[in-house]
Amino acid sequence: MKRLACGTHLILDGFGLEAEALADTELLLGSAKRLAAEWSLQGGRELLLSEDTGSSVALLARRGHVLLHAYVDEGVLVADVFGHGEGDPLSLGATLKDSFDFGRIELRVTRRGRSFPESPDLLPRAVAGDRAYAYARLLRLP
C-alpha cells in the first residue's frame, strides 16, 4: 500500500512541571521552534499568547503545525504537533525533555491519511469498496 496523503499527528501531555519553566515564554517559543525545525515545518505564522495562568505558542506552517500550551498553576504542558509525512514520535518527547523536566508524559500518535494500493489493477477495487461503504453509511433507505 502506498499513501496518497499522510501525516503524523502527535499529542503529548506532560505533567509535574515546575511553574517557573512553564511561565518562561522564551523557553516555550524556543521549544516550539526546535520542534518545527526537526519536523521540517518552514514558513507560516507564529503566535504567542501569554497571561498569568499560562501561555500558548502556535507555529502554523504550510505543511503542519506546532501548538504548545503551558498551564502554570496545574504544572502541565500540552503539545500538539502535526507534520506531513512520517514523523518520529520519540523526537517530540526528547526535544521537550531537553527544555522541561516532566514528572510523567502521555503520548498519542495518529497517522493521518488514506492508503491506496500501488498496483493500478487494484485501485478500482479499493474505490468500489469506498463507494459501497459510503452508500451503506450515508444514503438513507426509503
Provide tags for this entry.
42% strand, 32% helix, 142 residues, elongated, alpha+beta, S-adenosylmethionine decarboxylase
Briefly say what this structure is.
The chain is of the alpha+beta class and 142 residues long. 32% of the residues lie in helices and 42% in strands.
How would you portray this structure in words?
By secondary structure, the chain is an alpha+beta fold. The chain has one domain (2-138): S-adenosylmethionine decarboxylase (4-Layer Sandwich), CATH 3.60.90. Helices cover 32% and strands 42% of the residues. The protein is built from four helices and six strands, in the order βααββββαβα. A six-stranded antiparallel β-sheet has the order 2-3-4-5-1-6. A hairpin with a 4-residue loop joins β4 (64-71) and β5 (76-84). α2 packs antiparallel against α3 (89-99). The two termini are 37 Å apart. The mean pLDDT is 84.
Write the layout of secondary structure elements.
Elements: E1 2-15, H1 19-23, H2 25-38, E2 45-51, E3 54-61, E4 64-71, E5 76-84, H3 89-99, E6 104-116, H4 123-138
Antiparallel strand pairs: 1-5, 1-6, 2-3, 3-4, 4-5
Helix pairs in contact: 2-3
Reading off the top of the CATH hierarchy, the class is best stated as Alpha Beta
In which range does the helix fraction lie?
A: 25-40%
Main sheet attributes: strand count, strand direction, barrel closure? 6 strands, antiparallel
Number of strands: 6
In N-to-C order, the SSE pattern is EHHEEEEHEH
CATH superfamily label? S-adenosylmethionine decarboxylase
User: What oligomeric arrangement do these chains adopt?
Assistant: single chain
Strand sequence of the main sheet, in spatial order? 2-3-4-5-1-6
The portion of residues forming beta strands comes to 35-45%
Domain module tally: 1
What would the CATH topology be? S-adenosylmethionine decarboxylase
Mean of residue pLDDT values:
84
Assign an overall shape.
elongated
Straight-line N-to-C gap:
37 Å
Unreliable residue runs: none
